[in-house]
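Lab notebook, bench 4. The sequencing result for the construct came back, and we need a structural model before the next group meeting so we can plan mutations. Quick request posted to the team channel:

Model the 3D structure of this chain.
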Amino acid sequence: MRSTSTLAIGILVLVLSILLIPIFRPSLGVYVTIIALGTAVALQKYVASFAGFFVLRMSRLFDVGHRVRIGEIKGDVRDIGLLHFVLDEVGEGEKSGGELTGRILHIPNHVILDQPVLNFSQNFSVRGRFIVCDVAFDELRVPLPPAIPVHRAVKLLEEIFQEEDRPLVEKARRTYGRDAPNFLEEAERTPRVMVFIDANTTWLVGRFVAPIRGRNELRSRINLRFLEAVEKERSAVVG
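Done. Here's the predicted structure in token form:
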């Protein structure tokens, strides 16, 4: 970080020196202006990335260790430099969501100036300010199992959600105290599972608290428990 600050100061001193030349050498003013304009056009993306570094630091959009999505790119922040930041890429979607792909992405800082930034690690507000949190509100969609009444299926899935994420909710409340993320209140006071119907399928859509790293393992465990509960229900009906 010290070398980054030194380089930033050096660049600022160079820019100021160029701007001050016309004051002390008026005869060079025209040439300096032309050179400055040409340089600005040629290096506009580098200048924008340099400016983006200060935007990142002042706005605290994200920091090293945070999990972010910028446009279509998702990953864990490994490093933030003057001109670019480095991400460990993370898969997106139902099949690969939350898993590291093994690829390292070098992204110019200017991307944050015109792309939406979603910070999974710092995306919850309390009393008008953002806080860092390593859990998030996740969503799971499962088709309504055949031969199971919809109300019974909803109850089974809600019970599993509450049992699986209760330790995470309690841990978050102990950790953050009064500054607990707002979504914890939603998790405790709103229905966990809702029913949606499209042209071909009735879906159970549930929301639960999940760790940002380890989300897939929790989703898999919930799915397995739900399938086991459904089998027991069917066995009980047959019996």
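The beta strands are 67-70, 73-80, 84-90, 100-108, 117-119, 124-126, 129-131, 135-143, 193-197, 202-211.
Will bring this to the meeting.
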